[in-house]
Amino acid sequence: MAVHFDPDAAAPSESGIYGLPFTPDDAKVVVIPVPFEATTSYGGGTSKGPAAVLEASRQVDLHDHETGRPYAAGIAMLDIPRKIVRWNRDAKERAAAVIEKGGVVDRKTRSAAAFVNDISDSVNEWVYEQTRALLATDKMPVILGGDHSVPYGAIRAYAEKYPKLGILHLDAHADLREAYEGFTWSHASIFNNVMTKLPVAKLVQVGVRDLGSAENAMIESSKGRIVTFFDSDVAARKEKGDSYADIADDIVAQLPHDVYLSWDIDGLDPTLCPSTGTPVPGGLSWNEAIGLLRALIRARKRIVGLDLCEVAPGDTEWDANVGARLLYKMIGFALLSQG
Q1: pTM above 0.90, yes or no
Q2: In 3-state terms, what secondary structure has residue 239?
Q3: Which residues contact 137 (CB under 8 A, 6 or more apart)?
């Protein structure tokens, strides 16, 4: 920590994430921005999420009533990678023709879909290498998307380091499609890819309220490896008088000791993220989302890593404001869970 750093002072405009003076070399937590959204199928803008969250983070007060001083461990963010920006631009241009045809891959769109899949492969590999290198130096890499396709490489690296890893997945969507709109690495397919290609022990989903029939079949046939707490079921329990704390305890009880958080901001009530690409009515309130983090601490789970995706800046700074604060809370509880 810089000698004269004042956590209560206004953040300089060119300071690091949350106004902090850390570099990636001296920070425990290193945020990896991944401004990629080539497979986005409805609203766009998530590629601008990392820059918007960085800007909004400088308005976040650093003392947290629940987790203390997360910033003291050191939080830094890597520079926006120009390579990913270029890949995103090129892939979005080619993806447009496929999306326009409703994902039909035929003679005219086959090469475009293949191009996007190849670039997505490259993004996965880049994220994997960045994450693996940071894990090797005992840091906690955090992925900041971009759409929800981008954490695959990070989950791969975390699953290698932590056998029997569990994932707590907050999302309005199950993201279990085998492929979507012709894209193998679609934001709608990440957890199909994770659960069929990686040694992840358990996937626990919360907030899901949009679901395809094939996704439902995958959940039902998973033999308990995928457990989904549908938004409507949680609402029904609350209507019957169950406390949310009890519900949250039931959710985290399904997870193994080591937990990775993969949170799509559209898992929240869309009043908290109105500009996200695929908002859906319903979802978790702010306090319910943080309540899941509290439940993880009560259950003595260890949060080993995390990502936050689908933050899309709109006409105001609101989405980025919520995203920056949610990210800080996730980091704070992760550090608290690690002692």
Answers
A1: yes
A2: helix
A3: none
Is residue 243 predicted with pLDDT exceeding 60? yes
* Per-residue confidence (pLDDT) for residue 43, from 0 to 100: 67
181 falls in which pLDDT band (50, 70, 90)?
Answer: confident
- Helices 82-100 and 110-136 pack at an angle, to 10 degrees, of 150
What CATH fold (topology level) applies to the domain 17-337? Arginase; Chain A (3.40.800)
Residue 169, strand partner residues: 205, 262
| Torsion angle defined by CA atoms of residues 41, 33, 133 and 164, in that order, rounded to the nearest 10 degrees | -50
Continuous segment of H or E residues that includes residue 167 = strand 166-170
Average pLDDT, the chain: 94
Three state DSSP letters for 23-53 = CCCCCCEEEEEECCCCCCCCCCCHHHHHHHH
Per residue in 141-165, pLDDT (tens digit) is 999 999 999 999 999 999 999 999 9
Contact between 143 and 32 under an 8 Å Cβ cutoff? The reply is yes
Quick one: which of 313, 254, 314, 261 has its CA closest to 289?
A: 261
- β-pairing, 202-206 vs 226-229, is parallel
The predicted structure's pLDDT at residue 254: 98
Cβ atoms of 80 and 33 closer than 8 Å: yes
Query: Tokens 């976040």 sit at which residue?
Result: 60
Compute the distance between CA of residue 184 and CA of residue 54 in angstroms, rounded to an integer. 30
Query: 93-107, 231-245, 264-278, 284-298: lowest mean pLDDT where?
Result: 93-107
Q: What is the distance in angstroms between the CA of the first residue and the CA of the last residue of the chain?
A: 20
